[in-house]
Design brief:
This protein is an alpha+beta fold. 40% of the residues lie in helices and 15% in strands. It has a three-stranded mixed sheet with strand order 1-2-3. It is flat and about 55 Å long.
Length: 146
Amino acid sequence: MARQRPKAPGQRQLRIGEEIRHVLAGILERETFRDPALAGVSVTVTEVRPSPDLRHARVYIVPLGGGDPKPILEGLRRVKPFLRRELASRLTMKFIPDLVFAADTTFDEAERIARLLHKPEVARDLGAGFAPLASLPSDENRGEEE
């Protein structure tokens, strides 16, 4: 049996994911948790990806200021029932999704790619088509040369 390609998230999934992200960010910003892993820690919710049936949602987080996300992820898993209750009181959805927390590594990956692109041997191979980040035209200056 052939495997189906995963479909891109629909508009409803994206909208609900963004709504959940916004509410979770507000909860994590305003609430004080008794969990020692979350006490005094600022967390950024970068993305929420709900499943197509909206029963599950993967929540990507980054500790503000960097650091190891593992203890924060464990703390969030322990306070998951509280977070789901808060989501239920603030959202009007038939089902509140089960939350799965994960560390967001996109910033680390982007930094790794930027470092690779700035290596001398890579810059040489890219030739004249490569513009360092500092020399890219800003949005205000774009189109003035014409």
